[in-house]
Design a protein that fits this description.
This protein is of the alpha+beta class and 225 residues long. It is built from 10 helices and 6 strands, in the order βααααββααααααβββ. The protein is globular, with a radius of gyration of 18 Å. The chain starts with a strand and ends with a strand.
Length: 225
């Protein structure tokens, strides 16, 4: 399946690959700095948030996803072709199953920047040291963090101070079209919606940035509103 990108989309996708490869390696540094810098959090608070995540051993790397990101990101570079149909600058040919992985990575990135931190515990693995009783405790702690923010709620307040001011609960967030939501969250969202449309004849979607949509060559008609 061939997808056409503006230069901005193409560079952005490669940036997301870098940040999310680190995330799926269970390293919170890049994603915390990405979120914190976006919303103007002090560097000291960003480092505090990273420390909180690192102090709770309730997530683990996802090697398969890391390998997929490495493999696909290389293909994106190697399979890039220039196009002259403005506003598009490049097109990339990947298998449909690979685009689905790209969509998952972009969706997770978008949700994290939006403040939906529960997605961390949907995407990362749960550590298993082979001790059943200990695994049960880790599993419970993982679920407590996912649903209620136990142990990690402070990280979101440190990284996105505006959400603290809004007094939203652990699962509260800006919403994709909110003026306070990060532009990169919106850009990733639009890319996801186009990639999700590949098996349809026509697709309607909410337009939340001023950037033209990416385009699936021979893909469905997309109605933006």
């Amino acid at each position: 399946m061939v997808v056409q990108f503006t230069a901005k989309h193409y560079d952005f996708l490669n940036h997301v690959f870098k940040v999310m490869k680190s995330f799926y390696n269970n390293n919170y540094t890049d994603i915390c700095f990405e979120i914190g810098k976006t919303y103007g959090a002090p560097e000291e608070d960003i480092k505090k948030a990273i420390g909180i995540f690192d102090s709770l051993p309730i997530t683990a790397p996802v090697p398969a996803m890391v390998n997929n990101i490495v493999f696909i990101s290389r293909k994106v570079v190697l399979n890039k072709a220039d196009v002259t149909q403005k506003p598009y600058a490049y097109e990339v040919d990947l298998e449909e199953k690979e685009w689905r992985i790209v969509s998952t990575v972009l969706d997770t990135y978008s949700r994290l920047l939006m403040g939906q931190f529960f997605v961390i515990y949907e995407q990362l693995d749960i550590p298993d040291n082979g001790v059943e009783s200990n695994y049960d405790l880790v599993l419970k702690a993982n679920h407590d963090a996912r649903w209620n923010g136990v142990g990690v709620a402070q990280t979101r307040e440190l990284l996105i101070p505006k959400l603290k001011e809004m007094r939203l609960g652990w699962n509260g967030n800006f919403g994709i079209a909110n003026a306070d939501n990060a532009y990169n969250s919106k850009l990733a969202y639009e890319m996801v919606k186009v990639l999700e449309s590949c098996s349809r004849y026509e697709c309607g979607m909410l337009k939340v940035t001023d950037e033209p949509l990416i385009k699936i060559v021979g893909g469905p008609k997309i109605v933006a509103f």
